[in-house]
Amino acid sequence: MRSKRLSTVEEQTYAVVLDRGDEVVESLTEWAAENGIRAARLTGIGGFRQVTLGFFDPGTLDYRRIPVDRQTEVLSLIGDFAMAEDDVRPQLHAHVVVGLPDGTTRGGHLLSGEVWPTLEVLVTQSPRYLKRRHDPATGLALIDLD
User: Fold this and answer.
1) What is the CB neighbour count within 10 angstroms for residue 8?
2) Which residues are within 8 A (CB) of 27 and not within 5 positions of it... i.e. 6 or more apart?
């Protein structure tokens, strides 16, 4: 286990509301880059017209795509922003649980999603930033606390 104190001062929190038709990963990443977000945590609720979830397969070191091509409720969206290894753009890492009309759920890594009718996201910025580095064992960009 590793840890690092990220804040001893008040953090800034933003409300980011995505509109019908917005692509969630692209929109949030663009917003974070435009607003100088280098490290943050986020939560959200709302709805998707369609969403693609991912399940990381350690055998292939890639995400198995799980398309949900119907209207869903976003029951829980949680994640974080950290700087990519190139230190140019923040990288979103988020997981989502969506509800289907019959009350069942699907969940996984958020790969893409089309917002409908809205997605309300609270982003809390950390005064210190996190950086992701490529992990050769998994092929993933993982948070490096050093």
Assistant:
1) 7
2) 18, 115
Of the candidates 55, 77, 82, the one whose C-alpha atom is nearest the C-alpha of residue 121 is 77
What's the DSSP call for residue 11? P
Q: How many residues does the chain have?
A: 146
Residue reference for tokens 């289907």: 100
Whether the predicted pLDDT of 63 surpasses 90: yes
Map tokens 């699907």 to a residue: 106
d(C-alpha 38, C-alpha 80), whole Å: 10
Query: What is the pLDDT at residue 144?
Result: 86
Given a cut of 90, whether residue 32 has pLDDT beyond it is yes
Q: Are the C-beta atoms of 46 and 74 separated by less than 8 Å?
A: yes
- Does the structure show a pLDDT above 70 at 46? yes
**Sign of the dihedral through C-alpha 55, 20, 27, 32:** negative
Collapsed DSSP state (helix, strand, coil) of residue 134: strand
Place of tokens 């350690």: 58
Q: 10 Å Cβ neighbour count for 118?
A: 14
Residue 82 phi/psi, 5-degree rounding, is: -145, 155
* CA neighbor of 96 nearest in space, from 50, 139, 142: 50
